[in-house]
Amino acid sequence: MTKKIAVLPGDGIGTEIVEQAIKVLDFLNTDMNLGFEFENGLIGGAAYDVHGTPFPQQTIDLVKPADAILLGAVGGYKWESLDISVRPEKGLLGLRSTLNLFSNLRPAILYPQLADASTLKPEVVSGLDLMIVRELTGGIYFGQPRGVRVLENGERQGFNTATYTESEVRRIGHSAFRIAQKRHKKLCSVDKANVLECTEFWREIMIDLSKEYPDVTLSHMYVDNAAMQLVRAPKQFDVMVTSNLFGDVLSDCASMLTGSIGMLPSASLDDHGKGMYEPIHGSAPDIAGQDIANPLATILSAAMMLRYTFNNEEAALRIEKAVNDALDSNVRTADIYAAGTQKVSCSQMGDAVVSALKNRG
User: What is the pTM of this model?
Assistant: First the structure.
């Protein structure tokens, strides 16, 4: 049975890194007869340049019937002067909203070969394996009203609204508890319940939900403390669940524990397992077109696609083991390069992963 994957390279380094992930998926598609079909579309600044909008109808028509979406990155200096309503990032928000991709999974795994690449001491981060579950379609990024207004005294004021409905909190809670059940049965809910009513509400619902998951130990932590704990003792966490804004910040913080933001994949899922898969780093316009970006986060995002949307654990593990083998072969892109290793390009790193897949058979 044919499975359709919508491919949205986006902006900046997006084209380069997605090309390497497709290279890996193409090999497995043939080797394992996976039945994948790929179709490219535009999003972000690339879409704006052609259609005058970062999320055109053509892309909507492509992603809606697709089984999964592989995305590169959006944004760049070129479009920063545009009105906020048509900036590249609006394409990404529109994609998440249109497909109701509410559950964002961001694993932070430190490969043993990169322990010295982390900015923290190896004894603090060695063996790190945590999952951040971020609510993705609610909260302050989507809340209304929002904007800039002029007050009665003539002073301008910017404002945004943080809101969550009970159903929104419950569904992300269920997602996080179920993931915790498959791991080490520890879930930490991150909020700011001491000062924000919206997150006090969040905490109350998480406590109520925990009654349905007696095998999972639920704890709570204020977001400022959680940020501190991530760099003090990150291995205390197994699964963290939090709001859109807090999850955005904490997952980027966690990325540096792994040695590079170029190592972290992500999945954004709907209620039925359909997902968009992307690296968590940005479009890096300063290095775009130079073939030096790290494609491993995008390749690992493809592994998450195989696991969470296509329920193919065997194929997902093959990619993850091949990435490990590639690192074992001592090749490194510039962001994870260290003395004694071999610096390679983005495309060469992709080739190294495919070679590792072939060698494993």
Answer: 0.88
